[in-house]
Structure formats: structure tokens, C-alpha cells
């Protein structure tokens, strides 16, 4: 790890972390040796492969170690200073610290560190919007202060209203997330949903089309953000659209929170000053523990603050403590260098594909991810993903807009730069990664299954996997994961 590494404390830090992990593994081994063995193997596997999954990263030893403590044993439903359980004084400390770092880092009036995941963060946001915009005025209209004060009949009327609201979000195949109103997901069932896509000619978001859809559909919630769209979004424009139709703008920045924190996305591209509510995960480009976070304006803060127990189970206090550590890391100047390198490296990867005739959705990238259409290699995403994995390159298959192969087999492979950038990979390394990916895909052929053509079966030309693994090992050895950490 280089200057962009999460903790540039050097040899002492690595030696101390090594001691901690060695001791922890001995303790685990004394109870269930197979778990200790799998834990050691997981590190070896992560060290030995090119991790290009756009939603993954490597958290620092400080963040990881923080999760392994007795905070895990504590129940703390409620919120800071207002708990349904006794003896939450230390949970209050770490939750307040996580929220303080998040507010400072993102310039948000309010932060909520409890969500266990990105989906949970989005559910908290949706119910905070419903509570603020439907439940509260509904209660006022009925002259009641609390839902428990309502008659059965009035309660049914209010429930019907809560279940009759509209949401407009980005479609899954054009890069939106399941929770942005995809029908099979709870978000598509809670709301009357409609989806906006991208311009079929360019693959870019067409803001006029989003505005037209919003004017026609009049959603209560407009969702912006993505998990597989390789471009930046103009959140000022999204807010204009939301304001014109009276919608609440919710931005899901789970994928690009690190680029916001690192000030790569500023002005109109920074969602926080424009959105009413911004949600994120903490483990992707933000490089923290696995979990979620919600940022909100003063207007929505009181409802978000009731996320537990309204939507969430008891907070994972050990993870909130780790969020505080990770957010403290993200406030350091070196995180900005990291975030810029993430964007530069994604660009180098895209350029590497383009110069080798790869076909990219939108023709390139200006964030942390690249979406390669593998049909030009005669492959499905499923075949390409498996052949790359055989060769030590870890990616995930992903739909492309209007994907003829659907969401399971897909036609695309999504690549992201955050994890390898943490290892210290630079632009030349990412160009070499593009070369290796193209070498694998050019040597992969679709194959038939026992019942005819298959979207999953493939053959990889002899020697390709070994050759690519050896080339990848050179890159990995030059950029070690957790340098100096020995188990
Ligand atoms: N699973 C995450 C991703 O890979 O983008 C989003 O939920």
C-alpha cells in the first residue's frame, strides 16, 4: 500500500496489527480451528487475486480490529441519549463519534450511523420521507399526535395513504439499484414505481427525459444514484426536477461516497448539498466496515433518527465504532489522494479497454467503475466472469442497458478501481490489467451444455489461465495487500 493506503503508519503499525491478528487467530483456533483456517485462507485469496469488484475494497486493520470487540454484545435500540436499554453510555460515545465524523466529512447537517447495510439505509430513508410527508400531515389533519391515538377507521385511512405513494428511480439495467423501485424488491412493492433510464444512443442520463417522466408521474420520491452507471450525475439538476414536481430528492451514493468524501465530486456532482436525504454504504469506495449511513437535512432528521426500531433491529455497535474509525481515516488528507487515484485509475482501465477495441457502456468512465459489454467477444457476462475468475481476476457480471441476456446471465462485466487502488496500483498497472482481461476474454469460447447452447458454459484456451495468473502475480507482488502483516 502506498500513500493512498488507509493507514500510512508504516512498519510499527503493521507489526502491531500482525501481533493482534496472530493472537486473535490462536484464540479462535482453540474453539473452531476450521474458522481460523478459513480466515487465514481468505486473506491469502484476497492477497493473491486481482480484485476488481466495483463495490469492494480493503478496510484498514484499525477498522477491521474495531469490529472484533464486546460492543457486539450490547443492545442499544433507540438513538444517542435516548435508548430502550440501560448502560448504553459507551455505545452513545461511538455512535456520536461516527455521526460527528460523517457530518464533518460530508458537510451534512445530520448523520445517522445505524443502518446495517445500504438496503437498510434506503429503507430508513424511504420511511423517513413517508413519516415526514404523509404520516405527520395525516395525523395533523385528523387532529391526532400519535398513530396510537387514531381510531381503527382513521388508522386504516392513513395506512392506505402511506401505501399509495409514488417513487421514480433509475432502472436496474441502466445502472440503478434494486432498491430504487425495481419491482421484485421491497421498494418496488412499497411504492407505485416508475423507472427512468438512459439515452439509448449515448448511455448517459437524459435529464430532460427524467424531468418529463417526473412531470407526468409526479412522484413523492425521486431517487438518484447508481450501482453500475459509469458516469457522474448532476445532482443540482436532479434537485431542480424534484422541486418542480414537489418530490423529495433521495440520493444513494453507496458506490461513490469515497469520491464525494475525497472531494473528487464537488459542486453539482456532490449530492449532499442538493439532496434532502443521502444514503450510502460505508464499505465500498469509502473503505470502511460493512454497513450503511444516512445523511439528512434538518427537516428529515427527526424521522431518520427513529430508524431503529422503526425499520432496523438493534444497532451493530461494534460496526458503528468501526465506522467512526473509518470516517476519521477518510477525513485525513491522504484520503483525497486516494479518491483522486481511484478516478484516475478507472480512467486508465477504460482507456486500456478502448485501445484494445473493448466496447464500453457510455464509451468510458468518469467515476470509479467501467462496464464492459462482452458480447463483442461472443460471450455472456456469466461466461466472462467465470473465465476471468479461473485466471485470478475477480469481477462481477452485470446487465447492460436493455440487456438481451437478462439480469442473471447478463452481457456485461463491471470493473471497479477502489480495491486495487488501495493496494497502490497506478495507471500503468490498470492498463496492464485491461490487457490481461482482454487476453482472457479473447481466449474464451462459448460452449454447449448437455442440452444444447448454454449461456454459462465456456472453454478457456489451454495455458491462458496460468499465463494470466503469473502476470497478475507480478502486479500483486509489486503492490502487496497489508504490507508487513504476517499471520
Ligand atoms: N451489492 C452492491 C453492488 O455490488 O453494487 C450493491 O448492493
TrEMBL record:
The secretion signal range is none
Q: In its UniProt record, which GO terms are filed under biological process? A: glycine biosynthetic process from serine; methylation; tetrahydrofolate interconversion
Record site feature (Plays an important role in substrate specificity), residues = 283
Q: Which residues form the Serine hydroxymethyltransferase-like domain?
A: 29-133, 165-436
Q: Which residues of the sequence carry a binding annotation for (6S)-5,6,7,8-tetrahydrofolate?
A: 172, 176-178, 298
Ordered alphabetically, the record's keywords are: Amino-acid biosynthesis, Cytoplasm, One-carbon metabolism, Pyridoxal phosphate, Transferase
Q: What class of enzyme is it?
A: transferase
N6-(pyridoxal phosphate)lysine modifications at = 284
> What GO terms are given for molecular function?
glycine hydroxymethyltransferase activity; methyltransferase activity; pyridoxal phosphate binding
Principal location class: cytoplasm
Q: In which pathway does it act?
A: One-carbon metabolism; tetrahydrofolate interconversion; Amino-acid biosynthesis; glycine biosynthesis; glycine from L-serine: step 1/1
Cellular component terms, GO, for this chain's entry? cytosol
EC numbers: 2.1.2.1
Reaction(s) catalysed (UniProt annotation)? (6R)-5,10-methylene-5,6,7,8-tetrahydrofolate + glycine + H2O = (6S)-5,6,7,8-tetrahydrofolate + L-serine
Look up the domain of life of the source. Answer: Bacteria
Q: Which cofactor does it need?
A: pyridoxal 5'-phosphate
InterPro entries listed in its UniProt record: PyrdxlP-dep_Trfase, PyrdxlP-dep_Trfase_major, PyrdxlP-dep_Trfase_small, Ser_HO-MeTrfase, Ser_HO-MeTrfase-like, Ser_HO-MeTrfase_PLP_BS, SHMT-like_dom
Cross-referenced PANTHER family, in alphabetical order?
Answer: SERINE HYDROXYMETHYLTRANSFERASE, SERINE HYDROXYMETHYLTRANSFERASE 1
Describe its function.
Answer: Catalyzes the reversible interconversion of serine and glycine with tetrahydrofolate (THF) serving as the one-carbon carrier. This reaction serves as the major source of one-carbon groups required for the biosynthesis of purines, thymidylate, methionine, and other important biomolecules. Also exhibits THF-independent aldolase activity toward beta-hydroxyamino acids, producing glycine and aldehydes, via a retro-aldol mechanism.
- NCBIfam families according to UniProt: PRK00011.1, PRK13580.1
Q: Which family does it belong to?
A: Belongs to the SHMT family.
How is the subunit organization of this protein annotated in UniProt?
Answer: Homodimer.
Name of protein: Serine hydroxymethyltransferase
- This chain is encoded by the gene named glyA
Amino acid at each position: 500500500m502506498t500513500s493512498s493506503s488507509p493507514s500510512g503508519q508504516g512498519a510499527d503499525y503493521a507489526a502491531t496489527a500482525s501481533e493482534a491478528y496472530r493472537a486473535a487467530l490462536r484464540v479462535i483456533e482453540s474453539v473452531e480451528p476450521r474458522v481460523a483456517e478459513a480466515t487465514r485462507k481468505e486473506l491469502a485469496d484476497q492477497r493473491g487475486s486481482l480484485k476488481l469488484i466495483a463495490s469492494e475494497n480493503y478496510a484498514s486493520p484499525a477498522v477491521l480490529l474495531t469490529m472484533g470487540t464486546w460492543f457486539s454484545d450490547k443492545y442499544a435500540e433507540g438513538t444517542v441519549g435516548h435508548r430502550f436499554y440501560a448502560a448504553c453510555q459507551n455505545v452513545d460515545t461511538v455512535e456520536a463519534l461516527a455521526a460527528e465524523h460523517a457530518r464533518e466529512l460530508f458537510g451534512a447537517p445530520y448523520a445517522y450511523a445505524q443502518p446495517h447495510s445500504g438496503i437498510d439505509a434506503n429503507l430508513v430513508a424511504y420511511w423517513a420521507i413517508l413519516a415526514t410527508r404523509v404520516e405527520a400531515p395525516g395525523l395533523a389533519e385528523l387532529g391526532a399526535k400519535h398513530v396510537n391515538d387514531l381510531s381503527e377507521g382513521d388508522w386504516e385511512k392513513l395506512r392506505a395513504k402511506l401505501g399509495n405513494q409514488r417513487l421514480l428511480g433509475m432502472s436496474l439495467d441502466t445502472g440503478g439499484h434494486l432498491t430504487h423501485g425495481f419491482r421484485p424488491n421491497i421498494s418496488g412493492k412499497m411504492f407505485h414505481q416508475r423507472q427512468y433510464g438512459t439515452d439509448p444512443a449515448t448511455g448517459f442520463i437524459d435529464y430532460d427525459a427524467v424531468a418529463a417522466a417526473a412531470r407526468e408521474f409526479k412522484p413523492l420520491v425521486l431517487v438518484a444514484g447508481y450501482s453500475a452507471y459509469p458516469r457522474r450525475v448532476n445532482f443540482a439538476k436532479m434537485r431542480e426536477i424534484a422541486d418542480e414536481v414537489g418530490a423529495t430528492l433521495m440520493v444513494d451514493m453507496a458506490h461513490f461516497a469515497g469520491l464525494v468524501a475525497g472531494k473528487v465530486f464537488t459542486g453539482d456532482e456532490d449530492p449532499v448539498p442538493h439532496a434532502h436525504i443521502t444514503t450510502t454504504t460505508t464499505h465500498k469506495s469509502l473503505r470502511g466496515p460493512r454497513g450503511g449511513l444516512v445523511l439528512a437535512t434538518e427537516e428529515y432528521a427527526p424521522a431518520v433518527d427513529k430508524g431503529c426500531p422503526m425499520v432496523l433491529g438493534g444497532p451493530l455497535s461494534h460496526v458503528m465504532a468501526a465506522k467512526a474509525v473509518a470516517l476519521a481515516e477518510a477525513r485525513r488528507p491522504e484520503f483525497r489522494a486516494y479518491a483522486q487515484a481511484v478516478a484516475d485509475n478507472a480512467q486508465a482501465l477504460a482507456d486500456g479497454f478502448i485501445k484494445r477495441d473493448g466496447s464500453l457502456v457510455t464509451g468510458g468512465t468518469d467515476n470509479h467503475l467501467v462496464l464492459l459489454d462482452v458480447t463483442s467477444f461472443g460471450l455472456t457476462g456469466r461466461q466472462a466472469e467465470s473465465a476471468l475468475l479461473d485466471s485470478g481476476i475477480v469481477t462481477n457480471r452485470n446487465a447492460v442497458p436493455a440487456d438481451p441476456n437478462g439480469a442473471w446471465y447478463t452481457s456485461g462485466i463491471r470493473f471497479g478501481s477502489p480495491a486495487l487502488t488501495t493496494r497502490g496500483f497506478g495507471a500503468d498497472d490498470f492498463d496492464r490489467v485491461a490487457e490481461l482481461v482482454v487476453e482472457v476474454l479473447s481466449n474464451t469460447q462459448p460452449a454447449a451444455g448437455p442440452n444444447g447452447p448454454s449461456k454459462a458454459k465456456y472453454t478457456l484456451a489451454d495455458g491462458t489461465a496460468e499465463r494470466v495468473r503469473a502476470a497478475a502475480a507480478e502486479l500483486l507482488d509489486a503492490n502487496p495487500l497489508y504490507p508487513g502483516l504476517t499471520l
